[in-house]
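User: Okay, second chain of the day. Same drill as before: sequence in, structure tokens out.
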Amino acid sequence: MRIILWLSLAVSLFAQKETVNLSPGVVTDDHPQLLELLKIRRLYVEKLAGGDTAVQIRDMLIGALQGSRLFSVTENPEKADTILRGSAEDLVFTDVFQSSEGLHARSQIGSTRTTTASRGVGLSVGENESVRIAERKHEATVSVRLVSKDGDVIWSTTQESLGAKFRGASADVAAKVTRQLTEDYARARRLSGAPLPAPSSAAMSRP
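Assistant: Same drill. Structure tokens below.
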């Protein structure tokens, strides 16, 4: 009797677990801090560390964030409830491809009869071909975080780009940061049960 009771209890618990796992509309997430994104109203993009290229990337970030329409972007840090800070850099480097191919053949025939008679034939063929291609490229990197007025980090991301089909590395990495923020903001809205906002502008579309 006791065994039957334990089996019934186990089956009941398993059925309840399956019901929870299969219930429609239930959203689970291991990053509850994403809900803090929904509290942002005004965002200030702080000067980014990283030299002269960071200034240009900051401007592109401001434009991309403004185009996402997630929050208001302000140039006055006193009016902002959240600050975006971090570092960015656009490095220029040369990508070199070099290869070398060679063909070499050598043949020699010789005979000797006596110390006074000898004969020899020799043949040598050689060919070498080398290729060197140097291409100048850009690699942009951005590492940023959203910090609340209380100093808490509520979101962060690191993005890299070598450029896209229709935009350079700096513009593409700014778009990647904004795209990641837009996706995480949508996840936060699903967690809260709030309706999703209208689709982002064309500026946020993937290349």
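The chain has three helices and five strands.

User: Thanks, on to the next one.
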